[in-house]
Design brief:
Elements: H1 6-14, H2 29-35, H3 39-46, H4 64-71, H5 74-83, H6 97-107, H7 109-117, E1 126-131, E2 137-143, E3 146-149, H8 152-159, H9 169-177, H10 185-196, H11 200-207, H12 215-230, H13 240-253, H14 257-269, H15 279-282, H16 288-297, H17 299-303, H18 307-316, H19 322-332, H20 341-347, H21 355-367, H22 374-379, H23 394-397
Antiparallel strand pairs: 1-2, 2-3
């Protein structure tokens, strides 16, 4: 169970292995997987038959959920709670999951890590970037043989609604503002929690942030408004037109790239066609994420053969950033035109230095019955579920023209 090999764990479980097996110290497999931040193994154990005991305890008395809270991984904590883990069970100090998360939040991740490790004040904390179970970047801190992630405040923010606790907008935003990197877990937790309230007051408070001098406050407002629009389920799309009314002039004057990412994303996702008017210009924005969102927002115009949109996308196919080139290839695949230019632009990317760009270009050519990319696809060999191209390859697998293993 310490191998971090979810396939091996699945095979053992299928062969009849006990999901509640323990190691030589009596620590259950689920606790070990939580300690290793191994979400794939956790999910295999949770899918086992019979099901793993989510509220099992290790010799130290902590449940998997309490260990996840201590470890600071909000994705693992969320998966456990959603699966039925009991958030009311307590640790040796009598703290349930919410209280433990609040303790880490108030104490500070580094301060609590230093206290628990017993390390001297002069010993440096080792920090590194890590990916959580859903592919988002978080930060790991290691000291004195202990390693935690920086998601404790995010866990607190996500747990509070389960206890009927709804901190004020300003308090939640203040938690996020303490972290300047908007890609960190606390920002996701904060903006999603505010969005989840679905209250007119939340929209009003978010809108009021658009003119704040602090770009992080503007980002918070833009991202909350974007999420309100994205997850709105009403038939009349009440937030869509107001979002475009607000975001178009805002984007025209916004200088901070973080805020522009939220604005570009909101406009790209909007159904209001006025949002498309800014997309060609945004494909030339200095920030690559803004350019990628702009490309996403141009799919409909490219499919209609709009010449300005098509020219902007073709220019991005030569972008200095590989992820932008990949997004441009995906957008070019929507082209509806008699001109060979889009397909020639895709063919030009078949020798790109980035494999993902080559493969994306080849897939788009293949599904349009252009054989120029076939050799790139054949060179990949079997594309199984572990391949990063597994989902994208569906278009190849189920296309009417088969991809032959060798050239005809």
């Amino acid at each position: 169970m310490r191998s971090k090999d979810a396939k091996a764990v699945a095979a053992l479980l299928a062969a009849g292995a006990d999901p509640d097996t323990v190691d030589e110290q009596g620590t259950p497999a689920l606790c070990l997987a939580v300690d290793a931040f191994d979400l794939p193994v956790i999910e295999e154990l949770m899918l086992s038959t019979p099901p793993v005991r989510l509220n099992c305890t290790a010799p130290d008395g902590r449940t998997p959920l309490l260990r996840a809270v201590d470890g600071g991984d909000p994705v693992i904590a969320s998966v456990l709670v959603s699966g039925g883990a009991d958030p009311e069970l307590t640790d040796a100090q009598g703290r349930n999951a919410l209280e433990l998360a609040r303790h880490w939040h108030l104490t500070g991740t580094e301060a609590e890590l230093r206290r628990r490790s017993g390390a001297s004040s002069s010993e440096p904390v080792v920090r590194r970037a890590a990916l959580d179970g859903w592919g988002s970047v978080c930060r790991e801190l290691s000291l004195g043989g202990l390693t935690v992630r920086n998601g404790h405040t995010a866990i607190l923010t996500e747990l509070e609604p389960r206890y009927g606790i709804a901190p004020a907008f300003a308090e939640l935003m203040g938690r996020a503002l303490a972290e300047p990197d908007v890609g960190q877990p606390v920002w996701t937790a904060t903006t999603l929690t505010l969005q989840g309230r679905r209250a007119p007051a939340v929209l009003a408070e978010a809108t009021a942030l658009r003119d704040r001098p602090n770009p992080l406050e503007r980002y918070c407002g833009a991202e909350v408004i974007r999420l309100l629009n994205l997850f709105d389920e009403s038939d009349d799309d009440p937030y869509d037109a107001p979002l475009v009314d607000l975001f178009l002039p805002w984007a025209a004057r916004e200088e901070d790239p973080r805020v522009m990412r939220a604005l570009a994303a909101g406009l790209a996702e909007a159904m209001d066609r006025r949002a498309e008017q800014l997309m060609p210009a945004l494909t030339r924005h200095p920030d690559r994420e803004v350019r990628r969102w702009a490309l996403s927002g141009l799919h409909r115009l490219v499919a209609q053969g709009d010449p300005e949109a098509l020219a902007a996308v073709m220019a991005c196919a030569r972008d200095t950033d590989a992820q932008v080139r990949e997004s441009a290839c995906r957008a070019l695949g929507r082209a509806a035109t008699d001109s060979p230019a889009p397909w020639d632009a895709l063919a030009a990317r078949l020798h790109d230095e980035a494999e993902a760009v080559r493969v994306t270009a080849a897939i788009e050519l293949f599904v349009h019955d252009d054989p120029r990319g076939d050799e790139v696809l054949r060179a990949l060999g079997p594309v199984d579920e572990d391949s990063p191209y597994h989902t994208a390859f569906y278009a190849v697998r189920y296309h009417h023209r088969p991809l032959h293993p060798t050239s005809p």
